Structures are given as structure tokens and as C-alpha cells.
């Protein structure tokens, strides 16, 4: 069974006083305001088994989605993402991983690429519209397409 998110955020996740940490905190708050995105990602990752109540819990949809964002934003390999989950409190905080939770590179590699190109484009458009509605930034369609193309190229290279 795969949960959408864990309603009990780990108590000991901490944010550092660093520019990158501040950026991740802002991204995190935006994602918290757009929970519908998790439902789209859930359909990609779980398919028809969205409401199955059997098996181990594993990673939440939210953790997989946030890991995909970090991986793309930092151009990390799956191995580096796995290392950061062990070594970095900031990464654990953004992913909302409980302390002591180990996630292998093969686990990330099995889940992150399951988010389809169509969902990435839908997410990109949705966040851009959110930003425009909140006057956070002007929507530049060429940058959106460039971002989507970079994600698509990376995931196609894995196949």
C-alpha cells in the first residue's frame, strides 16, 4: 500500500540557515498549497492500485515526488540522492523522511521515472499558473518548455 503523504511530519526534521535551505522551504510551502499534484503523481506511480490496502507502506507519493524535484534541481544521480537522504538533514526535511529511514538508489530508480512526461508538463503548467496568480513571477512559456525538455531528456536517457 502506498500512502499519498504522511500526515505526521517527523518532529526532528530541521532546516538550516542557508540560502539553499530557504529555497527548499519556499518550494515546500508551495507544494503544500497544491495537494492536487500528489493525486496526479499517485495515478502515475500506483496506476489502478491507488486504493489497495495491502502490503508494506514504503515511501509516500509525496516523498517520491519531492525526491524527483531535488534530483532534477541538483542534477543528482540516484546514488547521490540516496546519499543525501542519509547525510543531509536539509534533504530529509524537504523529503519529510523520518530519521533512520534508509532509501536505496534502486528504490528511487524504480519510482521516480514512473512519473510520466504528461504529468510533469501538467505539474509545470499548474505551478506556473499558481505563481502567476500569486504574482510570484511572470510566466515565461519558453522557460517552462525548456525545463520540461530537460526533465524529459533525463528520464528518457534512463530507459
Along the chain, the helix and strand elements come as HHHHHHHH
**Mean pLDDT rating:** 80
Low-pLDDT residue intervals, each spanning 5 or more residues:
none
* Global shape: globular
- Indicate the radius of gyration in whole angstroms: 15 Å
Biggest sheet layout: none
Q: Cα distance, first to last residue?
A: 26 Å
Structural class: mainly alpha
How many beta-strand elements? 0
Beta-strand residue percentage: under 5%
Helix content: 55-70%
Task: Furnish the topology, listing elements before pairings.
Blueprint (H helix, E strand, L loop, with lengths): L18 H15 L2 H11 L14 H14 L3 H10 L1 H7 L9 H7 L5 H17 L7 H18 L1
Helix pairs in contact: 4-5, 4-6, 7-8
Q: Which descriptors apply to this entry?
A:
mainly alpha, 8 helices, 159 residues, 62% helix, globular, single chain
Describe, in plain words, how this protein is organized in 3D.
- The chain has 159 residues and is mainly α.
- It has a domain at 19-113.
- The protein has helices at 19-33, 36-46, 61-74, 78-87, 89-95, 105-111, 117-133, 141-158.
- Helix 4 (78-87) packs across helix 5 (89-95), helix 4 crosses helix 6 and helix 7 runs antiparallel to helix 8 (141-158).
- It is globular.
- It starts with 18 loop residues before the first helix and ends with a helix.
- The model has no long low-confidence stretch (mean pLDDT 80).
Amino acid at each position: 500500500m502506498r500512502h499519498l503523504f504522511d500526515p505526521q511530519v517527523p518532529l526532528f526534521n530541521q532546516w538550516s540557515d542557508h540560502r539553499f535551505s530557504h529555497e527548499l522551504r519556499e518550494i515546500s510551502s508551495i507544494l503544500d498549497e497544491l495537494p492536487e499534484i500528489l493525486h496526479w503523481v499517485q495515478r502515475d506511480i500506483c496506476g489502478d492500485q491507488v486504493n489497495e490496502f495491502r502490503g508494506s507502506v514504503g515511501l509516500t507519493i509525496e516523498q517520491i515526488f519531492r525526491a524527483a524535484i531535488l534530483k532534477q534541481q541538483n542534477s543528482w544521480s540516484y546514488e547521490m540522492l540516496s546519499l543525501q537522504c542519509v547525510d543531509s538533514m536539509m534533504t530529509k526535511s524537504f523529503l519529510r523522511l523520518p530519521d533512520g529511514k534508509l532509501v536505496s538508489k534502486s528504490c528511487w530508480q524504480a519510482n521516480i521515472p514512473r512519473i510520466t512526461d504528461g504529468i510533469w508538463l501538467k505539474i509545470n503548467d499548474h505551478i506556473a499558473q499558481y505563481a502567476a496568480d500569486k504574482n510570484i513571477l511572470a510566466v515565461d512559456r519558453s522557460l517552462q518548455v525548456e525545463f520540461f525538455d530537460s526533465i524529459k531528456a533525463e528520464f528518457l536517457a534512463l530507459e
